[in-house]
Amino acid sequence: MARLNRHQLHQKTPILHSFALSAHTGLQVSLKMECWQPAGSFKIRGIGRLCQEAVHQGAKELICASGGNAGYATAWAGAELGVPVTVVVPSTTPEAARSRIRMLGATVLEIGHVWDESQVAALDLEAEDPDRRFCVHPFDHPLIWDGNATLISEAAKQMARPDAVLLSVGGGGLLCGVMQGLYDCNWEGSAVIAAETEGSASYAAALAAGHPVKLAQIHSLATTLGAQQVAAKSVEWGQRHFIKPIQVSDAQAVDACHRFAGDHRTLVEPACGAALAVLYHQLEALRHLPLKSVLVVICGGIGVTPDLLRHWQALTQVDA
Question: Which of 143, 209, 279, 301 could make an S-S bridge to 50, C-beta 3.0–4.6 Å?
């Protein structure tokens, strides 16, 4: 019998003042340390909520297509809720992420070269037994956004409203949750800065077009940002609120991870490094914004090790 826990699966995370990034940028930089969630990233907020509701409604098995972090959060939730989990990963998912998902007892299947192809396979698995299986979408679901919005409701109790919130964007689930949280907490005066790597910029393309567009390919080391098409809701938010998209190179994202590790003794994935790279490398892109304070969502990620970070550095170079 599933041991359903109706309490939240995520934990409250601290906000840290970054002396290093504040000195580097001249801004007051605060860090929301989602990398310290028990499941390794912010994903457990929204996915935990969605998984709990699915099990409450009778699901006996959870399936998730993921580049790593959403699958790990689903596996974590499944272990807590007492139901089996299958995670479908694309070929780009590092072995470090796969092994960590397996350690939680989940089955890992490699199907497809990008997340979108893995998602088709996950939906096919759900269709084989829809009364028993539930496919967890990693970013495009209202309960995902509700769960991710708790990040901002927490922050509103921990600090004064920042001039901007800086975050990385993959499929748009974090962005939708942050936007919902800003309006729930009367923080709608905060600008939002949406960072992507150049090879995974499906959100910037969607904002430019005014609707979701599908990228032909993903070319980025930040594999967990690799959704070819973002959630439509994230584009709607961009039409309602000031959201500035910024693209960084893989080299800048990796370098930001390296510098962040030195400054804060914490490892994060290049997907998280995309947001950090805005502050380490792309300050000119912020020059025309009236900013004094920035809250950075340190979204984390399980697919990073010291060896992998050194490997990524060897593959990329960044100007001094």
Answer: 143
314, 284 in Cβ contact below 8 A?
Answer: no
Does pTM top 0.85 for this prediction? yes
- Closest by CA to 74, choosing from 128, 1, 147, is 147
pLDDT value of position 303: 87
Tokens of 320: 């001094």
pLDDT of residue 320: 41
pLDDT reported for residue 318 = 56
**Which residues in the chain are classed under CATH 3.40.50.1100?**
15-42+141-315, 43-136
The CATH number of 43-136 is which of 3.40.720.10, 3.40.50.1100, 3.30.300.20, 3.40.50.970?
3.40.50.1100
Give the phi and the psi of residue 105 in degrees, each rounded to 5: 95, 5
Q: Flag residues of the chain having pLDDT under 70.
A: 1-6, 223-226, 318-320
* Contact yes or no for 15/158 (Cβ under 8 A): yes
pLDDT value of position 96: 84
- Residues with Cβ within 8 Å of 26's Cβ and at least 6 positions away in sequence, in order, are none
Give residue 4's pLDDT.
Answer: 44
At residue 165, φ and ψ (nearest 5 deg) are -110, 125
* Beta carbons within 8 Å of 140's beta carbon, 6+ residues apart: 171, 172, 173, 231, 232, 233
Q: Which tokens is 11 given?
A: 């934990």
Amino acid at 148: N
125 Cβ contact list (under 8 Å, min separation 6): 63, 86, 88, 133, 135
pLDDT at 65: 94
CA–CA gap between residue 225 and residue 229 (Å, rounded) = 11
pLDDT score of 317: 75
Q: Which of 11, 88, 14, 76 is nearest to 50 (CA)?
A: 76
